[in-house]
Amino acid sequence: MVEEFAFDNAEERRKVRQNDGGWIEVIAGSMFSGKSEELIRRLTRARIARQKVQVFKPGIDARYSVEEIASHSGQKHISLPVNSTSEMMEQVMPDTEVIGIDEAQFFDMEIIAAVNSLAEMGKRVIIAGLDQDYMGKPFEPMPQLLSIAEFITKTHAICVRCGATANYSQRTVESEARVEVGASDKYEARCRKCFVPHADAPTPL
Ligand code: ADP
Ligand code: ZN
Hints:
The two termini are 30 Å apart. The chain is an alpha/beta fold. The protein is built from 5 helices and 12 strands. The strands form 4 sheets. The protein has a 6-stranded parallel β-sheet with strand order 5-2-6-7-1-8, sandwiched between helices. A two-stranded antiparallel sheet has the order 3-4. A two-stranded antiparallel ribbon has the order 9-10. The structure holds adenosine-5'-diphosphate and zinc ion.
């Protein structure tokens, strides 16, 4: 996770660079696993390298701020909310070198072809998203994005019940909607043993 592009070695990085610089990175994991933090870290480093960066997030995720992506630990990066993949593609500028996308699980399936075409144009696309829903089911379009990415980083949270590595987002309020936007008011990180695929009482403090 400390490697900037999650490249395994310098040779791999050189090969990708030969490919006109275009590729896809996916950061996937449960809620509170540090996806947004990791995305913000990579975007900040690209900006330090004076690359032109654009960041998008789905309009649905107005948790903290409409114009920013934010991590649960308070880090922020400016971003543009969009309501669909096609709206995002209309906003991409020709000279943009790095594109960040947060909460990719809320995008439509068109995002798969769109990010492929952005990478083919020579852009570095960094995508963060939840890979499983509150039932522990793969959350489309993340499985497809993981398949087409050159580089994948899986992030983990800490189970609030027992302290083990957490891979699941436990819903703690009754709702059967797949999309129920919230943070620690509605979800907590749980490990495989402590997770149940339905709403459960929050862990007492
Ligand atoms: P994600 O985008 O994956 O939801 P964020 O990057 O927004 O995650 O937040 C990660 C931060 O959340 C951590 O650095 C930590 O400060 C905080 N945090 C809160 N609860 C947990 C938890 N159960 N496990 C790990 N980190 C947690
Ligand atoms: Zn646990």
